[in-house]
Design brief:
With 139 residues, the protein is an all-alpha fold. The chain has five helices and no strands. The longest helix has 13 residues.
């Protein structure tokens, strides 16, 4: 694809409704229009992170649950279990938020290790998460 997205990845999928501003755009293209938790939940956390062996209420990899309705409570203001001194999400401070370090969106102790065993997130999704955190990581 011209944007560098792997056409077989979930990021390459187009909108399913066929109507509205997101129709026929890849999820990565749609991400440029978003900075809201609802979009991030549906298109990053639920689609990529809250999988059977990862961040579910059953498995809780790293003590983190990213399922619908639970992700924000496990992220915002919570200490990283991976690196002492880091907080998962610091509202208004994306570069101090370990979530961005883990997905390759900020410098830190182990930049870019998530999502585990899957393709890295496209830059547009990372940027949407950055904007959400910068705006206060609101529900």
């Amino acid at each position: 694809m011209p944007d560098g997205t792997d056409p077989t990845s979930p990021d390459a999928a187009t909108g399913s409704t066929g109507v509205g501003p997101d129709a026929q755009q890849s999820v990565c293209e749609q991400a440029t229009l978003h900075s809201d938790l609802a979009f991030i939940q549906d298109n990053v956390f639920s689609a990529t992170c809250a999988r059977s062996t990862c961040h579910t209420s059953t498995n809780q990899a790293g003590g983190l649950v990213l399922e619908q309705g639970m992700a924000r409570d496990y992220l915002v203001g919570k200490a990283s279990t991976q690196h002492a001194g880091w907080t998962r999400v610091v509202p208004g401070q994306p570069d101090m938020s370990y979530l961005l370090v883990a997905i390759g969106g900020a410098d830190g102790p182990d930049r870019g290790t998530m999502p585990w065993a899957m393709p890295m997130l496209c830059q547009e999704k990372i940027d949407a998460i950055r904007r959400w955190i910068a705006a206060g990581a609101n529900p």
